[in-house]
Amino acid sequence: MCIAGFACLVVTDWSALGELPQASIFGLAGLIGIALFSESLAIGLSVGGGKSSITFLPLLASVQLFGPVGGLALIVPTMAFVEFVVRRKSLMKGTFNVAQAVVGTTLGGMAFGLLGGEPLEGVQNPDIASQLIPFIGFGLVFLAINHAAVSFAVSLSQGLPFRRVWEQVLSNSGGRFNDILISPIALAVAFLYVQFGLAGIVVILLPMLFIRYSYLTTSKLRESNEDLLTALVKAIETRDPYTSGHSQRVSLLAGRIAEELGLNRIRVERVQMAALLHDIGKIEAVYTDILRKPDSLTDEERAIIESHVVRGEQLLRDLSSVPESVVLAVRHHHEREDGKGYPDGLVGDDIPVGAKIIVVCDAIDAMLSDRPYRKALPLSVVFDELKEHAGTHFDLELVKLLLRSDILADYAEMMRVQREATASSLAALGEDTRLVPPLPVPSLMAPAQRLRR
After folding, report:
1. Which residues contact 95 (CB under 8 A, 6 or more apart)?
2. Which of 7, 161, 196, 274 could form a disulfide with 326 if both were Cys (CB 3.0 to 4.6 A apart)?
3. Any domain includes 148
4. Domain that holds residue 278
5. CATH of the domain at 112
6. Does a cis peptide bond (omega within 30 degrees of 0) precede residue 126?
7. What per-residue confidence (pLDDT) applies to 30?
8. Contact at 8 Å (CB) between 398 and 427?
9. What is 249-291 written as a DSSP string?
10. 240 pLDDT band (50/70/90 cuts)?
């Protein structure tokens, strides 16, 4: 990639920049300044672990106004400054990121020219409509090169299949596709520059600040809701030491299974979120009192316990940032394949995929955990239980996936290590270690999570 990026810089006809009038040089310098300003305001994304900035706007505007060479003149100093000064990346990572941006801009510029795009600088009455297709062509090629380069690098460094990484990178690119949605602003900037000169470029600062504020507000709201929900889950589980960490472990296991199913990154994260929140309806004290009851439950008490799924749905619907798929998975995580579950008695394919995954993960974690009345079950018994109830309680295809993969073995080993670590810690303190619930140690991570971190 570094060689390709260097080659692109060598073959580019930089003389076009020297032919620009002084006012246009100032205009390009203004766009570069805006790009640097945008990167300094880049917002961290809780989903995907990346950064969201709006540098895409000045890049598109520079290509529209000054051609592909203008895009290169902007992207090289911007990316170099950001990678090595702002983010302080290592030499290899920083150079790779600069190089892939150079290659993307160069190939995108070729697409721009082949599709009939021409620099608008110096044109008195530009036809913006005629620039639309070349504009879109540049953006799509640039993003495609960016995603392919990152996917290929991750595939090589992590030893993962390229297609799998590619799908994860694509599904993890909410910020990038937001760039596409707001990209028409770049056309407006180019038009304003042609009409009003440098003052037209300055106007971009206002929509950029507004967009940045919108990104920031949305990001902060999402993070606040996630923190609140996580705190609620922990509060629920502290009421019963034997279920401590249960929801976190179920979330990790659900994410691993969703990955193995081939779900894209966004769907995997939503399954994990639903698994974390699946028992949030038990926040009220009435559920705790019943769950601690040593005797068998009455019909009325059983009805109250079963109502926790509806209560959880109601709580999550009050939070606008929780996706519908998460809400439905929480509502239906006690449905059964044979229709004998609750609250709606759904059958087979009518049950959301997220709920199907949570059902089996919930049961697995319960079987592999110590309880007051028994020790954790052996892995062989867990396999037998899954096979016995496949197609009735659990989804048949999910059970087949678990039987042929290493997911259950990995999870059982993680649980064993937790129990031993907890017992050792308590033994050192002179505490009773009989039937001690394991501490939540989220070490079972899906490949995509390992990549992100």
Report:
1. 2, 83
2. 274
3. yes
4. 238-452
5. 1.10.1760.20
6. no
7. 81
8. no
9. HHHHHHHHHHHHHT--HHHHHHHHHHHHTTTGGGGSHHHHHHH
10. low
